[in-house]
Amino acid sequence: MMDEKEIRQAVKEAGVRLVSSGLVQGTWGNISIRLDEKHMVVTPSGLDYIRLKPEDMVVVDIDTLEYDGPLKPTSEKKIHAAIYRNRKDVHAVIHSHPVHCSSVAAARRELPVMTQEMQQYVGGPARVGRYGLPGTKKLTDSTVEALGDRNGCLMANHGVLVCAASIERAFEVCRVMEECSRLFIESEAARILNRKDQTAGNIREAFCRLIK
Amino acid sequence: MNKTDQLLYFCQMTVKENLAGEGDCISIRDGDGMLATDPCKALRDQTAEDIRKFDFSHLPVNKMLALHRALYKARPDVSAVITNHAPYSCLVAEKQNKLSAVLDDVAQIIGPFVRFAASYEPRDVIRILGKRNACLIKNGGAVAVGRTPDEAHTGCLVLEKGAKAYVEGKILGGAKKIPLHEALLMRFVYKKKYSKADQTAKKEELDR
C-alpha cells in the first residue's frame, strides 16, 4: 500500500504522462488515486501538469468533497468521488480527451467492442453519458450512470472517463479505448466507401462523399 | 529558455503533433518587434539561424510575416502567433464555411464556433478573429494567437482536434453541436478563471 506522499507523487507522474502521451491538450483532463476509504488524491484545477509538484496535488474527502491547501481540486472531483463511493474495486480514475475517443464522443455514439482486449479491459461496449456542463451534477450523474460496472465510458462532446484497480491499469484502459475508437471510425469510413480495407486514408474520402 | 529556443521548441512540437504543413510560421512578440521563423522553410528544418527579428516599424515583404506583424499591432494582448496548415483544419477550411464547437475544449479555448477569414489579408483576419484565439482561412490553414506561445500552440492543437472530431463525427452519423449558451458560458469561465493563473505564470516567464 502506498502512503500519501507516494500517492501524491504517483498522481503528479500520471499527470505528466497524460500530457506526454497526447491523451490531453494543455491542462485538460484530470486524475485521481484512492488514498483510503474516505479520501482521494486529485490533480488541481487549471494548472499545467508539467509544472506541478507532488505537494500541489489535493487530498479530497470522498463524502463531503472538502479539501485542504491553497489549490482547488479539479472541477470534476464530484465524478471521481462518486465512482470511489460506488465502486470499491476502483483505486484510480482518469478523465482525458484522446483524439479518436473525442470524435466518437462528439457524435455521441456508443463505442462497440472492437477487440477482445476491449472486452477484457473495458468489460463491454463503452456507453455515452448525456451532455452536461463541466462540474455540474448533470455531468456527474450521467457519467456515473454510463460507466455502471464497466471500466470506461464516453462523455458526450467531452472525452473519456476510465477507472481501474491501479493507475497503470487505468492508462491501459485509456489506450485500449483510444485504439478501439480509431478502429471504429476507420470501419465506418470503409463501410461508407464500401471497401474492405480499413485505413485512415479512407476518412477524408468518406467525409467528402458525405458532404456532397 | 530564451525566445529563440522557445520558437524552436514550438516548431518541434507543431511537427510532432502533426499540425505542420507548407508555409507555416511561428512568432513571439519581442519588445517593439517580433522574432519569427522563416515562412519559406519547413518548421521541421528551422534552426536558430533562421529566426529573425522584425521591427514593427517596417512592413515585411513576406505576406505571412506581414500578417503576424498586423496581429501584434491590432492585439496588444497577444504575445505569440502561429499560422499553420494542419490536415483536418485545412480539410474543413476547404470544404466547409463554418465549424461549430463539437467538443468542450474547442468551446472553452476558441469559442462556440470557429470563424473563417476570406483570405490571409491582415484586415480580413483581424476582423474575423476579433478578440478570439483562433480562426480558419477559407481554402487555407489556421491562425492561432495567445498570451503566451503555449496558449497559441494549444489554440492550433485544439482547433485541429475540433476539425478532426467534426470530420470523423460526420462519418459516425454527425457530430452534435454544443448548445450556444453553454458554449458561451464555458468560454467565459475559461477566459476569466480556468486559464488565468497558468497563463499569467507563463507570461511572466516569457517577459523575464
Helix content of chain A: 40-55%
Structural class by sheet pairing and helices of chain A: alpha+beta
Beta-strand content of chain B: 15-25%
Strand line-up across the major sheet of chain B: 3-2-1-4-9-8-7
CATH-defined architecture of chain A: 3-Layer(aba) Sandwich
CATH class wording of chain B: Alpha Beta
Regions with little confidence, pLDDT below 50 for 5+ residues of chain A:
none
Q: Report the order of strands and helices of chain A.
A: HEEEHEHHEHEEHH
Task: Please explain how this structure is put together.
The complex is a heterodimer of chains A (212) and B (208). Chain A has 212 residues and is an alpha+beta fold. Chain A has one domain (4-211): L-fuculose-1-phosphate Aldolase (3-Layer(aba) Sandwich), CATH 3.40.225.10. Chain A has helices at residues 4-20, 77-86, 99-106, 116-122, 137-147, 167-192, 201-211, and strands at 30-34, 39-42, 58-61, 92-96, 128-129, 152-155, 159-164. Chain A has a seven-stranded mixed sheet, with helices on both faces. Chain A starts with a helix and ends with a helix. The model of chain A has no long low-confidence stretch (mean pLDDT 95). With 208 residues, chain B is α+β, with helices and mostly antiparallel strands. Chain B has one domain: L-fuculose-1-phosphate Aldolase. Helices cover 48% and strands 16% of the residues of chain B. Chain B has eight helices and nine strands. Chain B has a seven-stranded mixed sheet with strand order 3-2-1-4-9-8-7, sandwiched between helices. A two-stranded antiparallel sheet of chain B has the order 5-6. In chain B, a hairpin with a 4-residue loop joins strand 8 (134-137) and strand 9 (142-146). Chain B starts with a helix and ends with a helix. The mean pLDDT of chain B is 93.
